[in-house]
Design brief:
This protein has 216 residues and is α/β, with parallel strands linked by helices. The protein has helices spanning 13-24, 31-41, 44-55, 61-72, 90-103, 117-125, 165-179, 181-189, 201-215, and strands spanning 2-6, 28-30, 81-84, 109-114, 127-130, 136-138, 157-158, 192-196. The structure holds adenosine-5'-diphosphate and adenosine monophosphate.
Length: 216
């Protein structure tokens, strides 16, 4: 199963991705997570990505595409993969198609998680992430049992610096301009499936998995 989760920031890609990779036993490849890990480790990649991320802008295609190509060449993708947050531009989508064609492994489906703008702002500004295992919570919609403590690993929860109101608005605008055109791109390829991401987490998961299960 080779899947892309497409959708604006805050649509629930990470939340659904976490569950989907457990069910289908495939690696979760989230470019945002890769950049945040690189920043934490202080690598050159992290240094190059940080300014763009802080401003709510996209990291340049050249940096992202090479990284994903290398990741897809790793052995654990033999049974498939779930891409989350990539591609985000037409150039990235075309580069991904070329890489997958070379490898002879076309995409199974692109799941477009559709959520309205106002809900996205509330979801992003209330998001909390575990420093230990990266699990995602929401102060209102998906709170941890104990405030600021991860249910899964006991790690401390924090707020991403780009989840401030101003940066969120910029990221949503960048999505609209640069990423939304990918909906039409994959629709043309006949592999796009849109789910209503405004419903609760379990309902969205049920809809995605019932679609993917009937493809298998
Ligand atoms: P993305 O990876 O698309 O940016 P996340 O999965 O991190 O989005 O979700 C953004 C925020 O919204 C998180 O705080 C998450 O807990 C919350 N969230 C995710 N899915 C839902 C949902 N269906 N209903 C309400 N809140 C949700
Ligand atoms: P995310 O964790 O998906 O919300 O991504 C956080 C930030 O990482 C984005 O706002 C971008 O700055 C950067 N980023 C993640 N994925 C990509 C990508 N595919 N292309 C460009 N920038 C990206």
């Amino acid at each position: 199963m080779r899947i892309i989760l497409l959708g604006p920031p805050g649509a629930g890609k990470g939340t659904q991705g976490e569950r989907l990779v457990k069910k289908y036993k495939i690696p979760h490849i989230a470019t945002g997570d890769i950049f945040r890990a690189a920043i934490k480790e202080g690598t050159e990649l992290g240094l190059m990505a940080k300014d763009y991320m802080d401003q709510g802008l996209l990291v340049p295609d050249e940096l992202v595409v090479g990284l994903v190509r290398e990741r897809l060449a790793e052995e654990d993708t033999a049974q498939g993969f779930l891409l989350d947050g990539f591609p985000r531009t037409l150039a990235q989508a075309e580069a991904l198609d070329a890489a997958l064609a070379e490898m002879g492994t076309p995409l199974t489906a692109v799941i477009n998680v559709d959520v309205g703008q106002d809900a996205l702002v509330e979801r992003l500004t209330g998001r909390r992430v575990c420093r230990g295992c990266g699990s995602t919570y929401h102060i209102k919609f998906n709170p941890p049992t104990v405030r600021s403590v991860c249910d899964k690993c006991g790690g401390e929860l924090y707020q991403r610096s780009d989840d401030s109101v101003d940066t969120v608005r910029q990221r949503l605008e960048v999505y609209r301009r640069q990423t939304e055109p990918l909906i039409a791109y994959y629709q043309k390829q006949g592999i796009l499936y849109t789910v209503d991401g405004s419903r609760d987490i379990d309902q969205v998961f049920a809809e995605i998995t019932s679609y993917l299960d009937q493809l298998a």
